[in-house]
Write a structure and sequence with these properties.
FAD/NAD(P)-binding domain, five-stranded parallel sheet, alpha/beta, binds iron/sulfur cluster, 20 helices, binds flavin-adenine dinucleotide, Fumarate Reductase Iron-sulfur Protein, Chain B, domain 2, about 15% strand, about 475 residues
Amino acid sequence: MADPRGFLNYRERELPERRPVAVRLLDYKEVYERREEDKAALTRQASRCMDCGVPFCHNGCPLGNLIPEWNDLTWRDRFDEAIDRLHATNNFPDFTGRLCPAPCETACVLGINQPAVTIKNIEQSIIDEAFERGLVAPQPPDHLTDRTVAVIGSGPSGLAAAQQLTRAGHTVAVFERADDIGGLLRYGIPEFKMEKRHLDRRLDQMRAEGTIFRPSTNLGTDMTGEELLERYDAVVLAMGATIPRDLPIPGRELDGIHQAMDYLPQANRTARGIAVADQITAQGKDVVIIGGGDTGADCLGTALRQGARSVTQLEIMPRPSEERPESQPWPTYPMIYRVASAHEEGGERVYAVSTAQFEGEDGTVARLVIDEVDMSQGRPTVVEGTRREIPAQLVLLAMGFTGTPKAGVVEQLGLDIDERGRIRRTDDFATDVPGVFVAGDAGRGQSLIVWAIAEGRSAAASADRYLRGQTELPAPIAASTMQLLAN
Ligand SMILES: Cc1cc2nc3c(=O)[nH]c(=O)nc-3n(C[C@H](O)[C@H](O)[C@H](O)COP(=O)(O)OP(=O)(O)OC[C@H]3O[C@@H](n4cnc5c(N)ncnc54)[C@H](O)[C@@H]3O)c2cc1C
Ligand code: SF4
């Protein structure tokens, strides 16, 4: 156990400071500043962990991260062992340490009557320190099987599955239709949340282990499902949930209304110095983002960095409370009012409103007509007399994703999509086609990076068992349990 009196001596959470808003709006670098004095704070925070008999943090984490163990090792400054325990359950703590909403922290036992241990920051510090000390080396397999695996999609689920299967000795190729590897880590999530150098150094590690990457290859077109089955012994479909939810209201056809995932990838390219012809940009415009979630916040931070005149983020649900509602007690992950770094930077969040129509001038959007709505009956009811207009020359739709397209490789493989847009699969991530497995958002619907990694690891274990008749690869959890926990 870390310091037995730690949680009594240090009652507050201490986190690294975010860079001043005025400074960080000038660039796309990560918002956190890491300083020397953070190390002492890190040790204090690790010492707050009580090494609970029943560590609820551990259950709160879809990966089953061994949190009390690495808290203890961090407190003892034994980073080489801490990184081993962290990697035992998570291929990419460098991604989750930056991007996870940390369900472990809302489940932390200390959180019952004190602020929870800063688990996510400790995780990030361990992996950053490990990279700095050269403790993260490639782990190539010590022997090769003669089996081949194709992983379709290079987001966190595909990368986790590929790394596990490569380390098990299989020859793994990752196919990605985009021009670069990483899925939403590359082209959805902005640099200010995770600089792409963290992704690139992981890809270097994976290449050194033997994983082959094939960007700019669209499965279903560049290679058919049938060809895939002929050439590979097993296939993991990790294609994400890429169909965006639309808003089919009057005026939707106007120019200047775009899906978030048409806008963010372009901004991620330019942030890396890659020129984009006819880029959608917020510069000098009144921007309205429809959708109050993470994707909307990423659009907000990006629009502010591009020099938007104003940014308004609309959300149909009412503003959540700042404290846990009674219906979502500890250790659940509660719906509370959260302030992402982008929200500190500017813009206005407007709750309980619905867009009735877009209006334009000369074929381009000029304003939105919105109504306040009452959600007390579980569906939006317009509040009479609340109609108003908001100016907008750029509208970004960030209302989530409805699933994976059936056309293309899914259809060619003879697979089915369920009523929620997910590729149908069994409890061990398998499909009706022998040797074809499904992981990540493609199988569970729009979700989180931590779930994608957990699913990639589990699907890899199933694929390995299929190929070799047995597996030593860990499977964090079964598909149905994953779904149950997420609902
Ligand atoms: C803007 C945005 C911000 C987000 N922020 C966060 C966050 O901060 N924290 C968090 O936990 N989660 C976040 N999420 C959710 C998270 O990114 C996803 O849950 C996660 O990336 C899913 O991983 P995946 O591997 O299943 O799919 P994806 O990351 O979507 O990757 C799927 C890949 O498959 C490729 N593909 C699809 N079809 C084919 C084909 N036919 N041939 C070849 N390649 C194909 C796609 O191009 C894509 O690259 C965010 C999502 C979005 C959209
Ligand atoms: S629940 Fe909190 S205090 Fe308990 S072991 Fe986990 S991190 Fe430590």
